[in-house]
């Protein structure tokens, strides 16, 4: 298992001691998922945290008509989990799906949370990660969903070229909360 990017990402939030790195790596394993494999199915308990080494992952739920509603996408060097399900110790409302073939480092929630209690530096990483990604990054997204048009949100998505180019049109439309036909109209409008 090549853990260099994983540790580099963690250390960008808070540097870990060698002792903590050893304890953390002892609970990690490498997994490979094929495109369309589920890392977590809605209604299941979230038993793992994931770090995306390669590939693309989507986080979605289903509406009453059985359509997938994508909440967010994760590229390489991202940490992924059903965080609220883990915190509440309840089944996840969301599924996590491989949108491309993926290689991940996974580590069990129970063992990881035990390490958080023992390793002060790991706990500080975890706090800083949550602050940055679930507070600072998430707030503008929530405001965007409430006040911006689908066109404005699409223009924001376009700013992340690598992600935009990897997503299928139906994923983008679902993420924006519109139909593929509406997305086509928006794209035509932008390109004219």
UniProtKB/TrEMBL annotation:
Q: Which SUPFAM superfamilies match?
A: cAMP-binding domain-like
The domain of life is: Bacteria
- Membrane-crossing ranges are none
Q: Which Gene3D superfamilies match?
A: Jelly Rolls
Question: Which positions fall inside the Cyclic nucleotide-binding domain?
Answer: 12-133
InterPro entries registered for this protein in UniProt? cNMP-bd_dom (IPR000595), cNMP-bd_dom_sf (IPR018490), RmlC-like_jellyroll (IPR014710)
| PROSITE patterns per the UniProt record, alphabetical | CNMP_BINDING_3
- Protein name, UniProt field: Cyclic nucleotide-binding protein
Provenance organism: Chryseobacterium contaminans
């Amino acid at each position: 298992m090549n853990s260099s990017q994983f540790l580099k990402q963690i250390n960008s939030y808070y540097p870990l001691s060698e002792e903590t790195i050893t304890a953390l790596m002892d609970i990690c394993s490498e997994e490979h998922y094929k495109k369309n494999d589920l890392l977590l199915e809605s209604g299941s308990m979230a038993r793992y945290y994931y770090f995306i080494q390669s590939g693309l992952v989507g986080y979605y739920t289903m509406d009453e008509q059985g359509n997938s509603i994508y909440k967010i996408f994760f590229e390489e060097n991202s940490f992924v989990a059903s965080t609220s399900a883990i915190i509440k110790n309840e089944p996840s409302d969301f599924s996590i799906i491989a949108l491309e073939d993926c290689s991940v480092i996974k580590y069990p929630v129970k063992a990881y949370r035990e390490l958080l209690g023992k390793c002060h530096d790991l706990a500080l990483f975890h706090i800083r990660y949550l602050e940055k990604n679930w507070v600072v990054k998430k707030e503008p997204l929530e405001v965007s969903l409430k006040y911006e048009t689908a066109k404005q949100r699409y223009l924001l998505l376009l700013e992340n070229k690598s992600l935009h180019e990897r997503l299928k049109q139906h994923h983008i439309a679902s993420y924006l909360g519109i139909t593929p036909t509406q997305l086509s109209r928006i794209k035509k409008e932008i390109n004219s």
